[in-house]
Amino acid sequence: MKFSFCAATFLLLSGVIGATPVAAAGAAPVGTKLVPHRAVYDMKLGDTEEQSGIAGLSGRMVYDFSGNACEGYSVNFRFVTEFQDTSGGSQITDLQTTSFEEPEAESYQFLSKTYVDQKLVEETRGTAHSGAEAKKVELKEPSEKSLEISNEVLFPTEHLLSIMKSAKDGIRFVAADIYDGAETGEKVYATTSVIGTKAVNSVKSNSSSADAPLSGMNYWPVTVAYFDPSTDDASGELLPVYQLSFWLYENGISGHLKLDYGDFTIQGTMTSLELYDETDCQ
């Protein structure tokens, strides 16, 4: 039994999103500011179908985001899950990623490691640079390799800023290709995002809820479908690898997570939120 997760899952989720071009190619659009923070989410099995073979699931996701539009953005992400299958077996998957995205999306550095039952099964490390005609990727792990991707492809924080701008501009459906160095570092994912109607977080600021610091803040319900362009079904139709639904707050923090893999879903509930001191551009 082996389950895997695309690292892009939160680089939305904080991770994670959009297609409208960002002002200055990656600089925060006017009125958009990402708040440095550390969020912890408890993960549990949601809806499941018999063919999934999954009897139970639990886990935790930690997302640590820092930086600003002038210094660049750093992300440390860890996603640990324990699966139980219907035959009585179990497996612990531990995905760990770190990344740094330069201002205006000039470059993107990434390191991703996946452990299964404490054994390293996958490691990807490299750097992508924006060029005049294409983005060039230099991989160090799992093997040294150079490749080019389109300049239209967005890096993760660039993607997040783009979907936030789309939401604030009232755009409800956007599409974009994204690159986050996931898996072997050679894959570009196509995404489509559906943005719902703006709402306000009604939790009381003095409550014990983890999202109390977000009291009274605007958010948009967002669903992002991730596609692997290299695969399709027998009919030639491109099917999503998975779909991610979440509340996207106007400061870039995400809550009320749901990962949909078709025959099972994973629900994520924020259990801790720490807001870091913000540093302004000089």
From TrEMBL:
Domain of life according to the entry: Bacteria
Pfam families: EipB_like
Keywords: Signal
Signal peptide coordinates: 1-19
Listed InterPro entries: EipB-like (IPR015000)
Keyword Signal recorded: yes
Protein name listed in UniProt: Cell envelope integrity EipB family protein
Source organism of this protein record: Roseibium porphyridii
